[in-house]
Amino acid sequence: MTLAFSAPVTTSYTDAPLSLQAEEYLATLADGAVAVDLRSAVARSAAGALVGAMALDVDDALDLLSPDSPDRLRTATVDARWVLVSDDGYDAEMLAWHLQARGVLGARFVVGGHAALRERGINGSVGADVLGLFDTP
């Protein structure tokens, strides 16, 4: 079998980290990344919501977070910094890999997922800017 390409095939390799440890989660969010909870509604209900995270269905997340998708969120750009969290980390790892392949080098996943965060007592955070939405005058 012979493959023919109309243009030279080149690839550039960028040494972008793919994962982060549970201990790095809060610091990464404090540095401006956005947490994305990929667990099902049932899992979030059973194990608790990840405070401050955007909850997305794992089946829709690639289209919503990819800058080249017609269904993308407005904040889905190549400069976006997503911290992906699934139950055990595996779904989030695959999604981070796919997003980085699409040019979103700020996509990372939490090793061990929500289970690792829960094990360490980490449940996310809500900044003053978000709390301000609920303050009464």
TrEMBL record:
The Rhodanese domain, residue ranges: 29-126
* InterPro entries cross-referenced by the UniProt entry: Rhodanese-like_dom, Rhodanese-like_dom_sf
Per the record, the domain of life is Bacteria
- Which SUPFAM superfamilies does this UniProt record tie to the protein? Rhodanese/Cell cycle control phosphatase
Q: What is this protein called?
A: Rhodanese domain-containing protein
